[in-house]
Amino acid sequence: MENSSNFIRSIMKEDLEAGKHDKIVTRFPPEPNGYLHIGHAKSIVINFGLADDFNGLTNLRFDDTNPLKEDQEYVDAIKEDVKWLGYDWDELRFASDYFEVMYEKAVLLIKKGKAYVDDLTAEQIREYRGTLTEPGKESPYRNRSVEENLELFERMRNGEFANGEKVLRAKIDMSSPNINLRDPVIYRISHATHHNTGDKWCIYPMYAFAHPLEDAIEDVTHSLCTVEFEDQRPFYDWVIAECETESKPRQIEFGRLNVENAVTSKRKLKQLVDEKFVDGWDDPRMPTISGLRRRGFTPEAIREFVKATGVSKGSGVVDSAMVEHFVREDLKLKAPRTMGILRPLKVVITNYPEDQVEMLDAENNPENEEMGVRQIPFSREIYIEQDDFMEDPPKKYFRLFPGNEVRLKHAYFIKCEDVIKDENGNVVEIHCTYDPETKSGTGFTGRKVKGTLHWVDAKHAVPAEFRLYEPLILDNEEEAADGEEKTFLDNINPNSLEIVQGFVEPNMKDVKPQEKFQFFRHGYFNVDPKYTTPEKPVFNLIVSLKSSFKL
Ligand code: ATP
Ligand code: MG
């Protein structure tokens, strides 16, 4: 987190100075029930970054206590994403490796009279729980003897009961103003195969009970989580105290990161994938780390963005232009500039010799000379962008129109002499003349033109596909009509992906997946790793060149 100050950093510093810990230990604890998204990047940067600042340690811990939703695919993807973001964990841990310890802690609670087996159904438990204004009601099974509880809990473990037939609950206070302390369920029965422990267990600890124990087992000093867990902190502390763990982790909450237009709920992201609204978890429109990677965002840009959002208790919504700002900043000096035509219009230079081809020098990045110069062919036929020509232009249109002269980037001035149309009146070809005196780099100062167009040589250009993106979900505050259920799926943008077929410079023939370029006047693009073939590169638009963001 560099040296920026934030309240968590201050707490850690005080705790170290007070001699509470020898070193800071944090963990990033994803549940492997989906892919990581931009919100998780915040938690990753905070956990790894802060521990790093104090030369501490960070574990990657899979919080895998719910076998029904978890999968090895997610475990693998999460590891890859954390590494790609530039972080290396100290230890790789799985909550499921601690099931035996957790079971023993539950037995300890029973022995202390702090937990009991309840036969109420889930629905009854909910009814008995009370509300914010009314206290809860005690379960008729609350006062079972320690012996009976021990026996029943063991029989739960042994698989003698069906799902939902019994639960283990902490015995705290049914009239606590904090509902989380009204005898929360700590173990449930689930006859399900676990991705890690297989069929060894049929009872699983609840998250709120498991999490503090996981932290204590790993000697985590500061357990950082998002603000919605604030009300859980008293129970977190109760578990740590009553389970008599040696290590005493401390929970601290920080505000979630929400990005405008970005879905940051794994459940919703999974729905987009399962219902095929997108091309998988790594669809470039997804705010997942793998989607951002395939889109062309860099780890540096994501890290800098997250750091710039700061660490506080509040959870605001961040403008998506802010994310884009950081990727432009990062790519400005790194990405070679090149020319690509997204919607081609042929231009014939009628006074250029038929069979001649010349090689022109083009700098790879005017802002970074070290990137050198490439050579691009120029001959009688080229492609320009369709919207760089207008037959009947408005005032202040400085690009190509009949009688007008423009500069071709890295090449010559050309003048529009004639417009060729098909039988329907569509413009199919432009005829121009060029002036050999105006070659770029020769210092020609005879006259000036106002427009500069990008182009590619028609004979040598490489066909390429461009994938242009808009937000997947539109902001739409519109209320649902009466009796109608409106979901985020109703706000899906039908134009979130546009695919166009164009051309790129011949030296782009062998581009590699994930290489990034700035196409002159269009924006930054990434070579798509999924659809690119040896015959045809596919480019994902990362961001356009224009920015509306002010830091
Ligand atoms: P769910 O628990 O509903 O599946 P989750 O987003 O909380 O979703 P976890 O795998 O539990 O997913 O998250 C791992 C860590 O990332 C948690 O500590 C969580 O608080 C943190 N986290 C998740 N979303 C955000 C967010 N938008 N901003 C900051 N931190 C987040
Ligand atoms: Mg969670």
From TrEMBL:
A motif ('HIGH' region) lies at residues 30-40. The keyword Protein biosynthesis applies. Its main location: cytoplasm. Its EC number is 6.1.1.18. A motif ('KMSKS' region) lies at residues 263-267. Residues 23-332 form the Glutamyl/glutaminyl-tRNA synthetase class Ib catalytic domain. One of its GO terms (molecular function) is ATP binding. InterPro entries: aa-tRNA-synth_I_CS, Gln-tRNA-synth, Gln/Glu-tRNA_Ligase, Gln_tRNA_ligase_bac, Glu/Gln-tRNA-synth, Glu/Gln-tRNA-synth_Ib_cat-dom, Glu/Gln-tRNA-synth_Ib_codon-bd, Glu_tRNA_lig_a-bdl. Coiled coil: none annotated. ATP binds at E31, P32, N33, H37, I38, G39, H40, A41, K42, S43, T226, R256, L257. The keyword Cytoplasm applies. Residues 335-435 form the Glutamyl/glutaminyl-tRNA synthetase class Ib anti-codon binding domain. GO terms for biological process: glutaminyl-tRNA aminoacylation; glutamyl-tRNA aminoacylation. Keywords: Aminoacyl-tRNA synthetase, ATP-binding, Cytoplasm, Ligase, Nucleotide-binding, Protein biosynthesis. It is an enzyme of class 6 (ligase). Pfam families: tRNA-synt_1c (PF00749), tRNA-synt_1c_C (PF03950), tRNA-synt_1c_C2 (PF20974). It catalyses: tRNA(Gln) + L-glutamine + ATP = L-glutaminyl-tRNA(Gln) + AMP + diphosphate. L-glutamine binds at D63, Y207. Gene3D superfamilies: Glutamyl-trna Synthetase, Domain 2 (1.10.1160.10), Glutamyl-tRNA Synthetase, Domain 3 (3.90.800.10), HUPs (3.40.50.620), Ribosomal Protein L25, Chain P (2.40.240.10). Residues 452-528 form the tRNA synthetases class I (E and Q) anti-codon binding domain. It is found in: Cytoplasm. Monomer. Belongs to the class-I aminoacyl-tRNA synthetase family. This is Glutamine--tRNA ligase. It comes from Bacillus yapensis.
